[in-house]
Write a structure and sequence with these properties.
The chain is an alpha+beta fold. It contains eleven helices and 20 strands. It folds into three domains: 127 residues, Electron Transport, Fmn-binding Protein, Chain A (Pnp Oxidase, Chain A); 172 residues, Beta-Lactamase (2-Layer Sandwich), CATH 3.30.450; 105 residues, Arc Repressor Mutant, subunit A (Orthogonal Bundle). The strands form four sheets. It has a seven-stranded antiparallel beta sheet. It has a six-stranded antiparallel beta sheet with strand order 10-9-8-13-12-11, with helices on both faces. A four-stranded mixed beta sheet has the order 16-15-14-20, with helices on one face. Helix 4 packs parallel to helix 8. The protein is elongated and about 85 Å long. The termini are far apart. The relative contact order is 0.10.
């Protein structure tokens, strides 16, 4: 009979859906068993176990390095007993950081950082793997995202390459992930480096768009993925614990002005979550995230597939740049048939914009809107060139990789979501028009106010 290796076991054994049980023994023969939050697969013969608050287990391993582990496959309830030999404890390095990051994703939104703190990643060598004879349950059918799905990535490059503008590129790319790769609810979040936070650029398959939602690095699944730049996969969680209040804990509240809060797009009752980092030239560009109401939806193959697809999409977005038109804009007075008055307030402290007392957006998109409205009022213009925005000293855009187009798209869609009379229209490449049939009053609140 072939000797079993860790690679022969179902990947679900390492997802933590059914906690593993670790058995150790003291010098005097007294046994001890404890539940584990993580069993991390290293290779065919080695695993790392999370050491969080198990003093008795630690003392036993120091006295007797032999242990046994019970693993359970959540779909079939098949079980395996692993005979282990303790090798070492790691408090830094790739394995430790990967395990720590997954725990942080949970702890940051459950307010249990101290309880969930990872002391070390304990590395074991697996001597033998023995199946335990149990009655097998009928496995639940999971989405078909097998290895042949990688062939679909060539079609994704065609979708990205044939897109003539940024909105089409983003929408068709996310739509492809849903229709062809099976990630029905997916969103892309871009890094705003100056704020050390991510903003939702676009989503697909959610009841609300969530465009403009802000997530700080290290907060929730998305923020933790971005902070550590590694995929974060949660196989079976209660949505209220892990995801529903992720933004609430990290929102800044600056008075006066009220709350700066755009809820994240989310699936009601989500059980499975997967977020992968998007890296370009060694730097964080953003995060691609998906979720499902079904547990055990995503495995390591999904993490690899979504990472590759996300990299293609990120490269397409980063390389997109409007061709600048040569002709300059002419002064165009706003419409004289104003239908009422709209009050817009801008806060310098965080570049947030409120319209009639209701929060709209913050950060660079908010700053862009304020500049457009100010130019409209001061110069009587309604059309603008992307080039002039890039060079305008108020925005302080970087000379390279400014990503102006993505911020304009985010702002445009946020205005659409709020159904405001202020609208941005793309007239031609490198040129946009600000439309509003109401009189607008502008008020800027300084940092000192």
């Amino acid at each position: 009979m072939k000797r079993l290796t860790l690679r022969d076991l179902p990947s679900g054994c390492f997802d933590g859906v059914i906690p593993a049980v670790l058995g150790t023994c003291a010098d005097d023969g007294t046994p001890n068993a404890t539940w584990l939050s993580q069993v991390f697969l290293l290779d065919d013969r080695h695993i790392a176990l999370s050491c969080q608050f198990f003093r008795k287990t630690r003392a036993n391993l120091e006295a007797n390095p032999r242990a046994q582990l019970l693993l359970v496959a959540p779909n079939s309830i098949l079980q395996w007993r692993l005979d282990l030999r303790f090798l070492r404890s790691e408090t830094q390095g790739r394995t430790f950081e990967a395990m720590k990051s997954r725990i942080e994703a949970i702890a940051s939104v459950t307010r249990m950082e101290a309880v969930f703190a990872l002391s070390s990643a304990d590395v074991f060598e697996v001597d033998t793997i023995t199946p335990i004879d149990v009655e097998q349950m009928t496995s639940r059918s999971l989405p078909d995202r097998s290895a042949d799905r990688l062939l679909e990535l060539s079609r994704l490059t065609e979708v990205i390459g044939s897109s003539t503008d940024l909105p089409t590129l983003v929408d068709s790319g996310l739509g492809f992930l849903a229709s062809q790769l099976g990630y029905e609810s997916v969103g892309i979040y871009l890094l705003e480096e100056s704020e050390q936070a991510l903003y939702a650029l676009a989503t697909h398959g959610f009841s609300t768009s969530g465009v403009g939602a802000r997530v700080e690095l290290g907060v929730g699944v998305i923020g933790t993925c971005a902070k550590h730049r590694i995929p974060i996969r949660i196989a079976d969680v209660d949505r209220e614990r892990l995801y529903g209040r992720a933004v609430q804990e990290q929102l800044e509240r600056i008075k006066p002005g009220g709350e700066r809060d755009i809820p994240l797009a989310s699936v009601v009752g989500a059980k499975s979550l997967l977020a992968v980092p998007l890296l370009l030239q060694g730097k964080l560009f953003g995060v691609l995230a998906t979720e499902s109401q079904q547990p055990l939806t995503f495995n390591e193959r999904d993490a690899q597939l979504l990472t590759t697809a996300g990299q293609l999409l990120a490269q397409g977005i980063a390389l997109y740049r409007d061709d600048e038109v040569e002709r300059e804009t002419e002064p165009e007075p706003p419409s004289t048939s104003a239908l009422g008055t709209l009050q817009v307030r801008y806060y310098e402290a965080d570049d947030s914009v409120f319209v009639d007392g209701e929060y709209l957006i913050r950060g660079l998109p908010g700053k862009i809107l304020w500049l457009l409205l100010s130019l409209r009022q001061d110069e009587g213009r309604t059309t603008f060139l992307n080039r002039e925005l890039r060079l305008h000293p108020f925005l302080k855009m970087p000379a390279i990789n400014d990503n102006l187009a993505t911020r304009l798209l985010m702002l445009q869609r946020r205005l659409d979501d709020k159904q405001l009379p202020i609208q941005l229209h793309r007239e031609e490449r490198g040129r946009l028009r600000l439309a509003c049939d109401m009189h607008i009053t502008l008020e800027s609140v300084s940092i000192q106010s």
